Amino acid sequence: MNAKLKDKIWTGILYVISGFVILLLMALIGYILYKGGNSLNPSFLFGKPKVGEAGGGIGPQLFNSFYMLVISLIITVPFGVGAGIYLAEYAKEGLLLNIIRLCIETMASLPSIVVGLFGLLVFVGMTNWGFTLLSGALAITVLNLPSLTRVSENAIVAAGKSVKEASLGLGATKWQTIKNVILPSAIPQILTGIILASGRIFGEAAALLYTAGMSAPVLPFDNFSLVGKSSPFSVMRPAETLSVYIWKLNSEGMVPDATAIANRSSAVLIIMVLLFNLIARILGKKIYESYAGKK
């Protein structure tokens, strides 16, 4: 068997595997959307849950999911990208760097239920905050920080190879090079890490069960406060996200049409993740083109 024939065979096998992965994803999404039915009904998306009655909505849970996403990214992105910059540009090979990498790899392998129990002991118990949105966001940060750090580090190292020496040779300082040259070039890869982190925020349930709680009170939106528990914008109130609500519906069956609501909620969750990925990709491309001078 000659080299060209071997290449064609293995290329065909890779195409088959890739096609199978795509079909599997399409089948999964299609099945969820089919079972979800009319999940984009406004009365369902923005309605209130009805305890013991059929026909409830997911308005509070949907708001809590997006609010959890925002708060968690506000905490995760600066620390994750900052740690990536340090590891890629400032850290020197040695014992300290080996310890940091070991800690990152260990944190990345932690099961979400273990992080949830840690959050219950620390963010809920030791701080006396109770079940709050902030406790949930911090638990999610513990889960997402290692992966975002590694993605940011790899992106910065890859982007810096071709442009770093040129920038320094033109007289720019190291920080100017990182801020104005390397980071813009690494934005697409870093954005990929942020998208992965966001997807985990949308889909995570185990860690949030023990930290953010399982109650979604209907709160007035005309009351703005970051700490008052009667405000929907408060980070110090319980916040039941959509993924936790789906778990609760399937485990407790507290309404007659629990299965139907769980299916429709799952469809909404899938649609939100797909839309977020699409918008983030387009936004990242536009940002990269603006820095690169492309139109």
TrEMBL record:
Chief site of localization: membrane
Membrane topology summary: Multi-pass membrane protein
GO CC list: plasma membrane
Domain ABC transmembrane type-1: 62-280
Residues passing through the membrane, by range: 12-34, 66-87, 99-123, 129-146, 190-212, 261-280
Alphabetical keyword list: Cell membrane, Membrane, Transmembrane, Transmembrane helix, Transport
Subcellular location: Cell membrane
GO terms of molecular function: phosphate transmembrane transporter activity
GO biological process annotation, one example: phosphate ion transmembrane transport
Coiled coil: none
Family label: Belongs to the binding-protein-dependent transport system permease family. CysTW subfamily.
PANTHER family reported for this sequence: ABC TRANSPORTER PERMEASE PROTEIN YQGI-RELATED, PHOSPHATE TRANSPORT SYSTEM PERMEASE PROTEIN PSTA-RELATED
Annotated protein name in UniProt: Phosphate transport system permease protein PstA
Species of origin: Clostridium muellerianum
